[in-house]
Amino acid sequence: MIGEELRIWWIRLWSLTLKELLQLSRDGFLIIAIVYMFTLDIWLSGNVHLELHRATLIVRDADHSEASRDLIAQFRYPYFRLGGEVFGEHEGISMLDRNQAIVLLDIPENFMKDLRSGKTVDVQVMIDGSNTIIGTLASSYAGRIIGEYGLDRALDRMKFHPDMLEIVPRVDVRVRVWYNPNQDDFWFLPISELLTVITIFGLMLPAAAAVREKERGTIEQLLVSPLSPAQIMIPKVVSMTFVVLVGTAVSLFGVIKGIFGVPIKGNLAFFFLTVALYTVAVSGMGLFISTFTRNLAQVAMLVLVVAMPVVLLSGAWTPPEAMPVWLRRAIHLSPLYYFIEMSYGILLRGAGFGALWHSFLGLSLLGSGAFIFGAYRFRRQFK
Question: What is this structure's pTM?
Answer without folding.
Answer: 0.81
